[in-house]
Amino acid sequence: MRLGLVIISSLLQLLCAAVNTKSTGSFEQFHKKFLSNPPLKLDDTTYERLSAAPRDYSAVVLLTALESRFGCQLCRDFQPEWDLVGKSWVRGDKKGASHLIFGTLDFADGRGTFQKLMLQTAPIIMLFPPTTGPYGKPDAQAIRYDFTTGPQSAEQINDWIIRHLPDGPKPPIYRPINYTRLLTITTTVLGFVSFVSVAAPYIIPVIQNRNLWAAISLITILLFTSGHMFNHIRKVPYVSGDGKGGISYFAAGFSNQFGLETQIVAAMYGSLSFATIAIALKVPRMADPKKQQIAVFVWGGIIFAMYSFLLSVFRVKNGGYPFHLPPF
Questions:
Q1: Pairing of strands 40-42, 100-106
Q2: What share of the chain is helix, strand, coil (3-state, %, to 5)?
Q3: Coil, helix or strand for 151?
Q4: Is 304:237 a contact under the CB 8 Å cutoff?
Q5: CA-to-CA distance for 64 and 152, rounded, in angstroms?
Q6: 53 — pLDDT class (breaks 50, 70, 90)
Q7: Is the whole-model pTM more than 0.70?
């Protein structure tokens, strides 16, 4: 009887030791493969082994569909970021102190798993907490991450993973230096500096030209005082019908206007400004008195006509306005 109890006790101890060795060996086996090629490429069988309980490690698995025939652009866009997360953890935790394994299960290699989980969309991240060990919970359920807001960066996914992990190493994301981008930026900057150095004698006089800046300032003032920003904010129509089969170019009331109305008002303001500048600056420089007199009458007539038209437009905007200036 005692001999039988001793044999049974020995067998139980050997069984417990075998279970512990199997669990530890399973993590070491996965971790060894993970170090050589992060993240692990899984299929239905390896996914079941990696996520099976009991486990004294955490596992994060990306379920994706990378082949073009599946039409998952989000999967292909996110894959480089996911690979970067896995490689960053290998670089920051080579000894596996965090007991974390990264894996990727493509739909082409894991149809059974997708059907078992009843997944209709991809990509999806599943995080499996440990079920044994100091931080393990026997009833721990997988935590799911859905890409509801579009593609995520490696930093965002890494922060989400860290929030659900027990205490231990938390490696940051190590982004490799993009030498192509660095070379492109350097070449662009050097090219721009060379262009400025060569073209400076021709560009600087243009930039320092007061007439150029006066024209730019005048155009900007006319553009914004005529209601250009109002059109962009309110998304006003360009023109509208007048209810009689014709076209209405001006909207009644001060809180309404049309796109073409803005352009007409800007043209009126521009004509008045140009005529005033011509009378003040150009006409006095004319040497011929007759030409000077004709110019005064011409520019004065333009100013008079534009003011008359401007008052008529103002009466359209404000029907109760009592004044007008002929001929409009």
A1: parallel
A2: 60, 10, 35
A3: coil
A4: no
A5: 14
A6: confident
A7: no
